[in-house]
Amino acid sequence: MRVVDLINKKKDGKILSKEEIQFIVSGYTNGHIPDYQMAAFLMAIYFKGMNRDEISNLTLSYIESGDIIDLSSIDGIKVDKHSSGGVGDKISLIVIPLVAALGIPVAKMSGRGLGHTGGTIDKLESIEGFNTNLDMNTFIDNVNKYKMAIAGQTANLTPADKKTYALRDVTGSVDSIPLIASSIMSKKIASGADAIVLDVKVGAGAFMKSLDKAKELAETMVDIGKSLNRKTIAIITNMNEPLGREVGNANEVREAMEVLKGNGSEDETTVALTIASYMSILGGVFEDFDSAYMKLKHIIKSGKAIEKFREFVRIQGGNTDIIGNPDMLPKAKNNIEIRAKKDGYIKFIKADNIGLAAMLLGAGRKNKEDTIDFSAGITVNKKYGEKVSKGDTVFVLHTNIENYTEAENIVKNSFSISKVKPAAIKYVYDIIK
C-alpha cells in the first residue's frame, strides 16, 4: 500500500478498509509516515467524512497503538463517564461517589485540563494530599474494596490519538465528528470500562455549538461503543451558561460537596443525577430511569453520598477535614465583585467568556506546561432567569494575580439583563441509546 493512494481514495469519497486505516495510523505513530501526508489524510476525512465501520476501525487503530488497561480482576460491570467539556463542569466529582454508593465499580482514568479550567485530576488535587498517581494494583484494589478510584491516564494510552490530535490542532481539522468521536472513544475504551455514559455538552461554552451537531456526535460515539462491545449511552446537556455557580478547581470541589449534601443548584443536580442514573442502569442495578433517579436522590438526602465522598478523599490520601470545613481548600487573596447596573432578570451568560476569564485569572492552562492556581476562579451569584436589582453582585472573580483587568472586562461583557423574565430552559436535551 502507498499512503498517497489511500489519501486519494478518501479524497474521492471512497470507503477505506480496516487494513488500510490500520496501515496509516500505525505508520504515522511509528514515524514511517510524515506529518504532511497525515495532515492531507485528516483533511480528506474532514471534507469527505467516514461511515460507521470506518470510524469504528479508526477508533480501534487508536486503541491498539498503545496500552489497553485490563480491569478484568475488578468484580462487576465497570462503568465510566466522559464529558465533552464545559465551564464549571464538576460532574465527575459528584457521580463517582454517588454511583459507588450503589455498589457499582467506577474505575476512572482522567486527564488534566487544557483551556478554560482544570480537568478532574486538577480539581481533586486542590484537596491537600489527594493522590492521583496510583499504581495499577492500588487502583484495582480500591475499586474492588470501595467501588471507586481515579488516576491520571498512562503516558502510553492511545499514543496514535495524541500524536494525531496535535497535528489536527495546527492544521484546521479539529472540528470533524469522525475524528472527535474516535479520539474520545478510543481513550475511554482503552481505559478498560465495560460501560460508558457520555455527557455531550452543547451551547456557547461547549465544543458543539448546535443541537444538531451535538446529536450527531453523540450518535456517532454510541455507535462506536456498541460496535466495540461496550454498553454506551449519551446524554446531551446544556452548556449555554456555566454549570452550577462555581468555576475553578477548589471552588468546584466546594460546590460538588454541596451537591452531595443536597444543597446544589438545580441545573447541576439535575445533570448529575441524570448521568448517575444511566450509569446505574448500565451497571445493572436498575432497569428504569425513574427508579434510579429517586434512589440516588435518597442517597443524597440520607447523607450517604457525602460520606462516600469523604471515603473517596480518604482512600486517595486527601485531607477529609475539608468535608466539614470547606474553607480549608485554597482561597484567593483578591475577590473582585461584578455588579448589576440595572434591575431585571439575567437574560444570558456567555459561558465561553466566563471560561476564558477564569483561565486568565489562573484557573486554567494556556499551554500544557502552565501551572494552575487552585484557588482561582469565578462565582456566579446570579444565573439565567434569576431576578437582579441594580447594585447586586452578579459575579465574584477570585485570583492571586494583581493585573486582572482583562478578565474583569470580559466578565462585565459576558451577560445581559432584560426587563422581562426569560422562558425556562432545559438542562437535559436528549438521551441517545
Description:
The chain has 433 residues and is of the alpha/beta class. The protein folds into three domains: 3-49, Transferase, Pyrimidine Nucleoside Phosphorylase, Chain C (Transferase, Pyrimidine Nucleoside Phosphorylase, Chain A, domain 3, Up-down Bundle); 79-322, Nucleoside phosphorylase/phosphoribosyltransferase catalytic domain (Pyrimidine Nucleoside Phosphorylase, Chain A, domain 2, 3-Layer(aba) Sandwich); 330-418, Alpha-Beta Complex (Aldehyde Oxidoreductase, domain 3). 44% of the residues lie in helices and 15% in strands. The protein contains 16 helices and 13 strands. It has helices spanning 3-11, 18-29, 35-48, 52-64, 91-100, 120-124, 136-146, 159-171, 177-190, 211-227, 249-260, 266-282, 289-302, 304-315, 351-361, 405-412, and strands spanning 79-83, 106-110, 148-152, 195-202, 231-238, 246-247, 334-339, 344-349, 377-380, 387-388, 393-399, 415-418, 428-432. The strands form four sheets. The chain has a four-stranded mixed β-sheet, with helices on both faces. A four-stranded antiparallel β-sheet has the order 6-9-11-7, with helices on both faces. Helix 10 (211-227) links the parallel strand 4 (195-202) and strand 5 (231-238). The protein starts with a helix and ends with a strand. Homodimer. Its EC number is 2.4.2.2. Catalyzes phosphorolysis of the pyrimidine nucleosides uridine, thymidine and 2'-deoxyuridine with the formation of the corresponding pyrimidine base and ribose-1-phosphate. It catalyses: uridine + phosphate = alpha-D-ribose 1-phosphate + uracil; 2'-deoxyuridine + phosphate = 2-deoxy-alpha-D-ribose 1-phosphate + uracil; thymidine + phosphate = 2-deoxy-alpha-D-ribose 1-phosphate + thymine.
